[in-house]
Amino acid sequence: MVCHLYPVRFYDVFIFKMKKLIYTIIVLFILSINSPTNAIDDGSYPTVPTGIFGYQEKVGDKVIPFNWQAEESDDGVTITVFEDKKAFYNLCTPEGETLKWRITEKGKHDIRAVRQGNTLLISGIRNGKKFSNETSIDERPWYQPLSFSLGKFLNSTAQETSFWVIRADNIEVTALTAKKMGEEILRIKGEDIPTQKVEIRAEGFFSKFWSARYWYRKGDNLFMRYQSVHGLPGTDETIVELIKSPENQLGG
Q1: Nearest-CA neighbor of 56 among 186, 240, 251?
Q2: Whole domain around residue 92: which residue ranges?
Q3: CA 239 to chain centre
Q4: pTM of this prediction?
Q5: Does any domain span residue 250?
Q6: Whether residue 87 has pLDDT greater than 70
Q7: Distance between start and end Cα atoms, the chain
Q8: Are residues 78 and 18 in the same domain?
Q9: Are both 137 and 221 inside the same structural domain?
Q10: In this structure, is residue 40 part of a structural domain?
Q11: Cα 68 from chain centroid?
């Protein structure tokens, strides 16, 4: 008799565990169809830095300074970048998703983009000529100013996220992936600054050929540094770095 008790108990336990597993799968399925596939639910809103921050872009011996500013309003968060004759304007939600984008360059460009549902509408003047384009995207967010838009991702427990962006050089819409690479001490102007490092890659086939690194200050996610190669192998690396903050204290 004893020898028959174990199979019966095993069968009862097996049936119980299978019912529990099926119930769990049903619950997860219901949650998945009611949640955006790329949502980052556990991240708090990005911090909005106040004041004008000075950066410099260096490619080989060429150095280009520019200013970066964020402002909050009832419409959202405006990120503006001023670089010599160029200006970049971004209107984002407090969570970092881009609603509108504009790039101007005197006598050359005046291009605007806006999101309507899952379509990016781009129009204006490019290289002195009228330009118009509509690009279909999916439900993933549009993150144009990565200096600000990745803030919620940085504050979350997620290790990776994907999003859409418009390349400023050729006005093409592309999907990118951001992946956390851990914490790193960044040395800028003789000061050691704790940062969170993020790697950006194109999706699909081109992910093997191009990547960029971003560093954000721990605590408030202030953009500190960018590093990538914009060209064929052998091209000088492009480095963007914070050189001046409103309080003139890089470490916060």
Answers
A1: 240
A2: 52-244
A3: 18
A4: 0.79
A5: no
A6: yes
A7: 75
A8: no
A9: yes
A10: no
A11: 17
